[in-house]
Amino acid sequence: MSFIILFIFLFNFAFCDEAGILNAQNQFLEESLTPYIHKHGSRLTHRSIRECHEEKIWLLPKKENCFVAINAGYFNTNDGECLGNVISDGRIAHDSKGIQNSHFGLTKDGQIFTGYVSEENVLSENMLQLVGGVIWILRNGTGFVNTSKNLECEKTEETGSMDRFVNIVSARSAVGHDKDGNVVFIQVDGKSDVDGINLYEMETLLQEFGLVNAINLDGGGSSTLVINGTTVNYPSDACDGQTYACDRKVSTILCVHHPYCNPRDCNKHGNCSMGECICEMNWLPPNCDQLFCSKTNCSNNGICTPEGCVCYPGFFGEDCSESCLNGWYGSMCTKQCECYNSVGCDPVNGTCKCKNGFMGDKCQHNCPTGFFGKNCLFMCRCNNSCYCDPVTGMCEIYANSSLYTAAKCLAMNIILEEDLIKNNIDEQRKWYLTMTILGVITGSCLASFILLMFCSCTCHCRNDQILCIKTERKHNPKYRLQVPGGYLSDSLSDSETVPMQSLTKS
Length: 506
Ligand SMILES: *[C@@H]1O[C@H](CO)[C@@H](O)[C@H](O)[C@H]1NC(C)=O
Ligand SMILES: *[C@@H]1O[C@H](CO)[C@@H](O)[C@H](O)[C@H]1NC(C)=O
Ligand SMILES: *[C@@H]1O[C@H](CO)[C@@H](O)[C@H](O)[C@H]1NC(C)=O
Ligand SMILES: *[C@@H]1O[C@H](CO)[C@@H](O)[C@H](O)[C@H]1NC(C)=O
Ligand SMILES: *[C@@H]1O[C@H](CO)[C@@H](O)[C@H](O)[C@H]1NC(C)=O
Ligand SMILES: *[C@@H]1O[C@H](CO)[C@@H](O)[C@H](O)[C@H]1NC(C)=O
Ligand SMILES: *[C@@H]1O[C@H](CO)[C@@H](O)[C@H](O)[C@H]1NC(C)=O
Ligand SMILES: *[C@@H]1O[C@H](CO)[C@@H](O)[C@H](O)[C@H]1NC(C)=O
Fold this sequence. Notes:
Blueprint: E1 3-8, E2 31-35, E3 41-46, H1 60-64, E4 66-71, E5 86-88, E6 91-94, E7 102-107, E8 111-116, H2 119-123, E9 127-132, E10 136-139, E11 142-143, H3 145-151, H4 162-167, E12 172-178, E13 183-188, H5 199-208, E14 211-217, E15 225-227, E16 230-231, E17 252-257, E18 270-273, E19 276-279, E20 283-284, E21 290-291, E22 302-305, E23 308-311, E24 315-316, E25 322-323, E26 328-329, E27 335-336, E28 342-345, E29 352-354, E30 358-359, E31 365-366, E32 371-372, E33 378-379, E34 387-388, E35 395-398, H6 403-418, H7 425-453, E36 478-483, H8 500-505
Antiparallel strand pairs: 1-13, 2-8, 3-17, 4-15, 4-17, 5-6, 5-9, 7-9, 10-11, 10-14, 12-13, 12-14, 15-16, 18-19, 20-21, 22-23, 24-25, 26-27, 28-29, 30-31, 32-33, 34-35, 35-36
Bound molecules: 2-acetamido-2-deoxy-beta-D-glucopyranose (8 copies).
One 2-acetamido-2-deoxy-beta-D-glucopyranose binds at residues 67, 227-228.
């Protein structure tokens, strides 16, 4: 004979219609409530499609992390149907409809229930775990077998009359609690009519163990104790067609496990230990569902992942603090700008930033005549006689222009620059004419002087030109007069663009 005692936590129990359907008024209503010590999680499991399908106990630990499991309630050995009430994790898995047998359970408010349970009690939703046995062995520290065998229903067990059931030696399982509220599983090996103990002996044994309340669970071939996934007793049933013994599939199992975490898998970012998630690096307790990552981890320029920052396009570096180098853009700054006349491109989307005087999606176009500046959005204010610099918008003289044209341009610029005679058109014309004549005279004098002084100069003269000046030929040959001539020229800057529409309106 071997027995094992385990201090843990658990519950349950049910009975016969004739012997007494239990209700709140029933004279047999007896119960014992004791607060329990909550060190571990407990569970009553019942299985499957049809509730209370049979299962091998040793299979359970893997699924439910039980470190101790014992067979529990009675069941129909033909179809696996549970007998008695079964409430598992607050859910009614089997309702005995008031059949009265001893039950053991845990209530939601932290008490151990032992005794006869009314239908009202089953439906009250106060039970967390509840399972039925046959025979209330110990009640309030006193042997209760002689009393309970007359109260309970013998239909629930398949051994025979209640007297035979109580007196037969057999393998036994029981669940109870001590005075401190520790739940205890007791399992004794045996074989019906051959070896084991009867319930009076069980009563004495449990008293010796200091138990206060205990009920008898299913015994015989069902009596099985599993610790850490291994069956530790010697079940009495022979295996199919074999001489050695095998554990039987049972329909309800009491399971003790470490408290579960919420969620049980710690969001896959940690391990559950005694009900608490031990999170992986960078994941935050209590649930390991949030990364330890403040906004500053990625400099506000990226998103945090367990592997590090993933920078938004335009940024790179471990903490995304670096902008793309000039000439590069996009995700991880791996794309090269595709621009012709630019000062680089947008680090995020690669839009070309054109140099002043150029336009087009790749800055491949010069400004159209009459426009200048950033993205050619500015309108030149130069008259036909002047050349408008597409970069600065300055009105300049064409290298190939005649002296008269050049003087005209010069005159106009002076008028504009000095902001002379704003509205007086006559005055303007007078000035314009005067300046042009003066310009021509000055130009002629200068030309004569230069001709005299530098007879050997290289000239590019045209038939209609009097003036011949030695000049450096540039791409756009012109004399630099450096007179601001564009609209809004005084507010030109790299950072500023003025839409063409607003210019043309003004
Ligand atoms: C349980 O037994 C103790 C003495 O051992 C007694 O004082 C107490 O009243 C009993 N409780 C019930 C509910 O019978
Ligand atoms: C139980 O009842 C039997 C007789 O039916 C008696 O011999 C026995 O002493 C009783 N046991 C207890 C613990 O009262
Ligand atoms: C069950 O396993 C745990 C560790 O996995 C161990 O601490 C414990 O002692 C084992 N229990 C028994 C009864 O072997
Ligand atoms: C979780 O458990 C696994 C396997 O035991 C181990 O490799 C891992 O390091 C553990 N993780 C943490 C965060 O403790
Ligand atoms: C965020 O920054 C903190 C403090 O610098 C660091 O400990 C943590 O590992 C960082 N998180 C990630 C996800 O890299
Ligand atoms: C590219 O980004 C710049 C700056 O954020 C924005 O002004 C521009 O409209 C974007 N271009 C495209 C094509 O999305
Ligand atoms: C410049 O040309 C415009 C027309 O192109 C003309 O209306 C304006 O009077 C001219 N300004 C001067 C100063 O000649
Ligand atoms: C002066 O040269 C420019 C190009 O540099 C040309 O567009 C313009 O027609 C020329 N003007 C004259 C009067 O030849």
